[in-house]
Amino acid sequence: MAKFGWIGLGNMGNPMALNLLKAGNEGTVWNRTAAKADAAVAAGAALAASPKAVAEASDFIFVTLADGPALHAAALGDDGFVAGLAPGKIVIEMSTVSVEESAKINAAVEAAGAKFLRSPLTGSTILAAAGTVGILTSGDKASYEKALPLLEVIGGNLFYLGADEQARVMKLSLNLMIATTMQMEAEAVVIAEKAGLDLAQVTELIAGSAVGSPLTGYKAKLITEGEYGPAFSVKLMIKDLKLALAVAEQYGVKMESTEITKKRLELAEAKGWGERDFSILTKLLEEESGYTR
């Protein structure tokens, strides 16, 4: 049994923390909105008053937050988790943030004598609940091996990518593919709809075809029903694409399809859809094409 902490109990963090508790581990949790910790507390976790208190009580500190500013707020300052660290503790940071933001937190963690694993996630809330989400990790190899029994509880596809910020770059690379795939599917779906094809059949066919993927399978129901509940919000995907484009600029890589998709998502956000799932790109194109279901 391990003593773990979890900071950030959102759509991804909450089910993963619950899986660690179900596996018999001792947990301490914190969330800015305390009510979001209710499920973890009901499952046996202790509710901490601050990120610092989480770190003090835990050997492994997991962090899942929305963006770089949220990570900095939870990490630094008198009540941040860095202030609660000691030698031997391991921070497993799973948010999608920039290489620069990650490196800054790594320096603070190392200065406290602890170790920092960059472990961004790939996959949906469904996979997080099932304990099969993908986890990309870079950082100290020995610390990764110590954390591996816990990572195996919450993740399916686990990858160790190197000693530095490699996991951050790989996560952004995956997310740009995820976003542009949904833009391509929007175009395929709307032209098929306007030609009179059945939408449910179209999304099923796409998911099972040569261009199908786990992603197109996950999103088939959202697109068919047209509700677009926020499994992965438009706002968060825009944030990730901006980070990916910044990395591309650093390495001198042109990413025209990513630029186009970001602009499409920004149009969706301007319509007030920032909290909806990013597969709402289909609805955006339907409206622009004069198609009403």
Description of the molecule:
With 293 residues, the protein is α/β, with parallel strands linked by helices. It folds into two domains: 3-163, 3-Layer(aba) Sandwich (Rossmann fold), CATH 3.40.50.720; 169-288, Orthogonal Bundle (N-(1-d-carboxylethyl)-l-norvaline Dehydrogenase, domain 2), CATH 1.10.1040.10. The protein is 54% helix and 14% strand. The chain has 13 helices and nine strands. The chain has helices at 13-22, 38-42, 51-57, 68-75, 99-111, 125-130, 141-154, 166-194, 199-208, 214-225, 234-251, 256-273, 281-288, and strands at 3-7, 26-30, 46-47, 60-63, 90-93, 115-118, 121-122, 133-138, 155-162. The protein has a six-stranded parallel β-sheet with strand order 3-2-1-4-5-6, with helices on both faces. Strands 7-8-9 form a three-stranded mixed β-sheet. β8 (133-138), α7 and β9 (155-162) form a beta-alpha-beta unit. α8 (166-194) crosses α9, α8 (166-194) runs parallel beside α13 and α9 runs antiparallel to α10. The longest helix has 29 residues, at 166-194. The protein is globular and about 65 Å long. The N and C termini lie far apart (53 Å). The model has no long low-confidence stretch (mean pLDDT 96).
What's a concise summary of this model?
The chain is built from 13 helices and 9 strands.
Write the layout of secondary structure elements.
Layout: E1 3-7, H1 13-22, E2 26-30, H2 38-42, E3 46-47, H3 51-57, E4 60-63, H4 68-75, E5 90-93, H5 99-111, E6 115-118, E7 121-122, H6 125-130, E8 133-138, H7 141-154, E9 155-162, H8 166-194, H9 199-208, H10 214-225, H11 234-251, H12 256-273, H13 281-288
Parallel strand pairs: 1-2, 1-4, 2-3, 4-5, 5-6, 8-9
Antiparallel strand pairs: 7-8
Helix pairs in contact: 8-9, 8-11, 8-12, 8-13, 9-10, 11-12
